[in-house]
Amino acid sequence: MQLEQVSDAAGEEHLYRQLYAGLPVPIPDLTKVSWPEPAGTISGSEGDALVGWVVFFAHPSEQGAAILQWIMVERERERIAKVHNTEPPGTRSELETLVPLVQEAADQARAAGYSRLEWFPAEPGFAEGLCTLLEAEALDDEEGDRFYRLSL
């Protein structure tokens, strides 16, 4: 898999254009979406096909922490087309594809001064699988919600 750092809004828009290409719904107006400014974005491709990408951004309330999010293109296209989250848990193959993206994000986050990456369960199997494969910690916040932390 080829990894590429995406360093500007035009690059991120290109990722979303690839994601939405051929889907029965239009790409959303990315200028109207309110999410934090990414500290880093890394995409992964196999040949000409975009496989997925990860984004990390500063945690809003914890100094030194970065929040990690990811998109696996095939799974996300299915979710968009069916208008709901996919049911089957992440497969070993999907996790093995995601790991190098997360490892590159961890390297970039460390270089940017972050001491840890944190992520939350969004799709069955991904957060937990990454925790296992990356030897991260599974923790519960003060409300009892599970999250995962990779020390950098």
Biggest sheet features: 7 strands, mixed
Assess the beta-strand content as a share of residues.
25-35%
How far is the first residue's CA from the last residue's CA? 23 Å
Strand order of the largest sheet: 1-2-3-4-5-7-6
Shape: globular
Tally of contiguous helical segments: 4
Fraction of residues in helix: 25-40%
Question: What value does the average pLDDT take?
Answer: 91
Give a count of the beta strands, DSSP E runs of length 2 or more: 7
Structural class: alpha+beta
Helix/strand order, N-terminal first = EHEEEHHEHEE
Question: What can you tell me about this protein's structure?
Answer:
By secondary structure, the chain is α+β, with helices and mostly antiparallel strands. 34% of the residues lie in helices and 29% in strands. The chain has a seven-stranded mixed sheet with strand order 1-2-3-4-5-7-6, sandwiched between helices. Helix 3 crosses helix 4. It is globular. The mean pLDDT is 91.
Kindly list the characteristics that best describe this protein.
alpha+beta, 4 helices, about 35% helix, about 150 residues, 7-stranded mixed sheet, single chain
Q: Any chance you could write out the topology, listing elements then pairs?
A:
Blueprint: E1 2-6, H1 9-20, E2 40-46, E3 49-58, E4 65-72, H2 73-82, H3 92-111, E5 116-119, H4 126-134, E6 137-140, E7 146-151
Parallel strand pairs: 4-5
Antiparallel strand pairs: 1-2, 2-3, 3-4, 5-7, 6-7
Helix pairs in contact: 3-4
